[in-house]
Design a protein that fits this description.
Strand order of the largest sheet: 2-5-10-13-16
Helix content: 40-55%
Order of helices and strands: HHHEHHEEEEEEEEEEEEEEEEH
Number of domains: 1
CATH architecture: 3 Solenoid
CATH class: Mainly Beta
Number of strands: 17
CATH topology: UDP N-Acetylglucosamine Acyltransferase, domain 1
Radius of gyration: 22 Å
Distance between the termini: 41 Å
CATH superfamily: Hexapeptide repeat proteins
Shape: flat
Number of helices: 6
Length: 249
């Protein structure tokens, strides 16, 4: 399988054909998500004839409703397809020539479309949480997610009363050389993830923690209960190096 995938990716013609097929798939998912909105606008033409300024205004209101109808339907449709594509994905390292990586690339492209078209406009809503739950995320009670930046959320577990600030990037994947690394991220109860933070795969954050503004939690890092993590912009490179050297010991 690895040799076949590598050969297909190396051949520009095969690569182009596969890309075209994937784009057709993406287009079909988008079209399926748009279908209810299109049907709604089509039916509205039976009640609103565009023969006056008032009717045109009323129809534009219907267009606005149709846009948000698309957002909600897309969250469900994309969530289902993304979940299907990621069935069986487990924490670990995967070669770029593996079948898992091939599926992950298709999933990732689909997610990027949703990330740009829908997720920024529904952050903090129950619909965003519904999407992440469809995808496979474990989300506790009273969780507030004010960012679209939850990546590979099928490996994410959030406890009760967790707050995730705007602009945060919680990623259950990174690339290491020619390998994709997937790692589960767990956030305990009553923990605050402040704005613009970056949490890397494999991180475990305990209960009652406060991850400060723009802080970074590195790969596989374990944060004990009741911890406060602060970022220090402008820290000299030599001090950072000394800290890393001390941690390795």
């Amino acid at each position: 399988m690895k040799k076949l995938i590598s050969a297909l990716m190396a051949d520009p013609i095969c690569n182009g054909i596969m890309s075209l097929l994937v784009y057709i798939f993406y287009g079909a998912v988008i079209g399926l998500s748009l279908a209810p909105s299109g049907l709604f606008l089509y039916k509205m033409l039976d009640f609103i004839s565009l023969d006056s300024y008032l009717n045109i205004f009323l129809y534009t209101l219907c267009v606005g409703v149709a846009i948000y109808m698309f957002f909600i339907v897309a969250l469900i449709v994309f969530g289902i397809f993304e979940r299907i594509l990621t069935i069986g994905f487990k924490p670990g390292k995967y070669s770029t020539s593996s079948g898992v990586f091939a599926r992950w690339i298709i999933y990732s492209g689909l997610h990027v479309i949703l990330l740009n078209m829908v997720l920024p406009y529904v952050s903090g809503t129950v619909w965003a949480k519904l999407f992440y739950k469809i995808l496979g995320a474990k989300i506790g009670k009273n969780v507030f997610i004010n960012t679209p930046g939850l990546h590979d959320a099928y490996l994410l577990e959030l406890g009760d009363n967790v707050v995730i600030g705007g602009g945060s990037n919680i990623s259950c994947h990174i690339f290491e050389g020619e390998e994709l690394y997937l790692g589960k991220i767990t956030v305990g109860n009553n923990t605050l993830i402040s704005a613009d933070t970056y949490i890397m795969p494999g991180a475990t954050i305990g209960n009652h923690c406060n991850i400060g503004l723009k802080a970074t939690v590195r790969k596989n890092k374990k944060i004990p209960d009741n911890s406060m993590i602060l970022a220090f912009p402008g820290t000299p490179a030599k001090e950072v190096a000394a800290i890393l050297k001390q941690e390795r010991k």
